[in-house]
Design a protein that fits this description.
EC number: 1.3.7.3
InterPro entries: Ferredoxin-dep_bilin_Rdtase (IPR009249), Phycoerythrobilin_Fdx_Rdtase (IPR022827)
Protein name: Phycoerythrobilin:ferredoxin oxidoreductase
GO molecular function, one term: phycoerythrobilin:ferredoxin oxidoreductase activity
Structural class: alpha+beta
Family: Belongs to the HY2 family.
Strand content: 15-25%
Shape: globular
Number of strands: 8
Radius of gyration: 18 Å
Largest sheet: 8 strands, antiparallel
Order of helices and strands: HEEEEEEEHHEHHHH
Distance between the termini: 39 Å
Bound molecules: 15,16-dihydrobiliverdin
Number of helices: 7
């Protein structure tokens, strides 16, 4: 089973069609990594693949896809805008573990003022509302992560795999399309004060995610410390390396 492959198979052609896409370099050793976990009958191949692109308005569009059998499927898909745009991040964390499914989808904001919400959250709220009944709030959520999410944050723990394949997949498509609509409308920022605020907000977000990556433990177990830390800082959340 590869639960999230259809999500990638949807996203990559869509961004190819809608953006002036170019490849984004993936450091050697990170395009494809595998290991075998467990012993005897529990032996399981775990494959992690990476995908990355950029466009004139988007600094990095990247996906990390972990495939390790029925009880381990992850697609973490994040879009980091160029630092001269005040666009939110597109953040999708689609996680299937032995304990169940955990889904996070959002346009993660740089700022929290009313004007920013009107521009970047309000257009998403109708989509969010459309899925609220079928994909209700998932409960327990780290307090310190709250500043990084918008009012349209879809956080849910579907009981059925079928709900992931149908409703979550539809929500992912709607959120990604709506994000690309925001990108279409975005104009570059030139005010130096505003540019400094954008850079600070991007660094806060990316440094938080690199520091608190919930996948760190999993990657450490599979691939060791050196690979994991370089993957996190040199690919998944790499802004500091490119300033
Ligand atoms: N999460 C990532 C990356 C992943 C990834 C790069 C490549 O940011 C996977 C893989 N997320 C992943 C895994 C788990 C989670 C959980 C494997 C399960 C961890 C475990 O239970 O062992 C949203 N993701 C989570 C959780 C949240 C998120 C809230 C629950 C774990 C927890 O309580 O911390 N997405 C995540 C998050 C931000 C975000 C915290 C913050 C800005 O954008």
């Amino acid at each position: 089973m590869t639960l999230y492959q259809p999500f990638l198979d949807y996203a990559i052609p869509l961004i190819t069609e809608r953006l002036d896409l170019a490849p984004y370099p993936i450091p050697a050793g990170f395009e494809h990594k595998e290991c075998i976990t467990g012993k005897g009958k529990k032996e399981q191949l775990v494959v992690t693949t990476s995908h990355a692109f950029k466009s004139s308005k988007l600094r990095q569009i990247r996906a990390a896809h972990v495939q390790g059998g029925d009880a381990l499927q992850v697609l973490n898909f994040v879009i980091f805008p160029q630092i001269n745009y005040d666009l939110p991040f597109f953040g999708a964390d689609l996680v299937t573990l032995p304990g169940g499914h955990l889904i996070a989808l959002d346009m993660q904001p740089l700022f929290h003022d009313v004007a920013y919400q009107q521009q970047y959250s309000d257009p998403i709220l109708p989509i969010f509302n459309k899925y609220q009944t079928d994909l209700p709030w998932g409960g327990d959520f780290p307090e310190e992560a709250k500043p990084f999410f918008s009012p349209a944050f879809l956080w849910t723990r579907p009981k059925e795999t079928e709900a992931v394949q149908t409703t979550v997949f539809a929500a992912f498509q709607d959120y990604l399309q709506a994000y690309l609509d925001l990108v279409d409308r975005a104009e570059p920022v030139t005010d130096s004060q505003r540019l400094a605020e954008i850079l600070q907000a991007q660094r806060n977000y990316i440094n938080y995610r690199a520091a608190k990556d919930p996948a760190r433990g999993m990657f450490l177990r599979f691939y060791g410390e050196e690979w994991t830390e370089e993957y996190i800082h040199g690919f998944l959340f790499d802004l500091e390396r490119h300033l």
